[in-house]
Amino acid sequence: MTYTIKTVARLSGVSTRTLRYYDEISLLKPATINSSGYRLYGDEEINRLQQILYYRELDFSLEEIKLILDNPNFDIKKALQIQYQQLLSRKERIENLLLNIKKTMQYYQGEIEMTASDKFSAFKVEQVTQNEQQYGDEIRSKYGTDQVNKANKKYLRLTQADMDEMKLVEKQLFEQLAVYIENPDVQGKVAQKIFELHKLWLSFTLPEYSSEMHKGIVTMYVEDERFKMYYDEKEPGSAEALYHIIQHYAN
């Protein structure tokens, strides 16, 4: 079955102007163009547009979507399963925020009491959910579901004071990394301080510390571009520096 561009626009809610733009950037090409110059779309293009809209809903850029859909190994069944889980996580996140807002309204109306920890609980749940979406598969495959679940539970139990201290430790860590990168000496006092700060930072969420796990975590920092980007955006070269320091001191 074929569809005109106007029909596709009506079915999908995507404007004809946007569909033409998708054609221009080769994100969604029509199946054919008839003798009158009209774009015609088939079922394959309809399926691709559906995927584009799902990924847009999940905040992927058009460039990212094109890379995903053009990958010869793209599996639509697997993609749908992942999208379903991501949207389900988003739904749970929104429900947690709504519940937190409702409780906060009751608190200001004098109906219930809220601790400082209660006021921020929804945001911690959201952070765990986001971390799961970004890094969950890699971390679970490396350390197991049980360890990751324990770490998530420990994070959710952190008080606001714990969260503030954790942020302070991370700030100090990057300050020391900046000093180290200017004058790298893995056996120096700055490197030792960086090791201690990173170990302390991990202690907020790790169920139990081990040097092997510590070394494994920083290995991910240099092997996985997403982790590497997080560190290097804050301080260029910090992922590699941290890797060498931890490998040296974690025994």
CATH class of the largest domain: Mainly Alpha
Question: What distance separates the N and C termini?
Answer: 65 Å
Q: What overall geometry do the principal axes of the alpha carbons give?
A: extended
Give the fraction of residues assigned to helices.
over 70%
- Low-confidence parts lasting 5 or more residues at pLDDT below 50? none
Protein name: DNA-binding transcriptional regulator, MerR family
Organism: Weissella bombi
Coiled coil: 77-104
Keywords: Activator, Coiled coil, DNA-binding, Transcription, Transcription regulation
Walk me through what this model shows.
By secondary structure, the protein is mostly helical. It folds into 3 domains: 3-70, Multidrug-efflux Transporter Regulator, Chain: A, Domain 2 (Orthogonal Bundle), CATH 1.10.1660.10; 76-155, no CATH class; 158-249, Orthogonal Bundle (Globin-like), CATH 1.10.490. It contains 12 helices and 3 strands. A hairpin with a 5-residue loop joins β2 (32-33) and β3. α5 (76-108) packs antiparallel against α6 and α9 (189-203) packs across α12 (238-249). The radius of gyration is 24 Å and the shape is extended. The N and C termini lie far apart (65 Å).
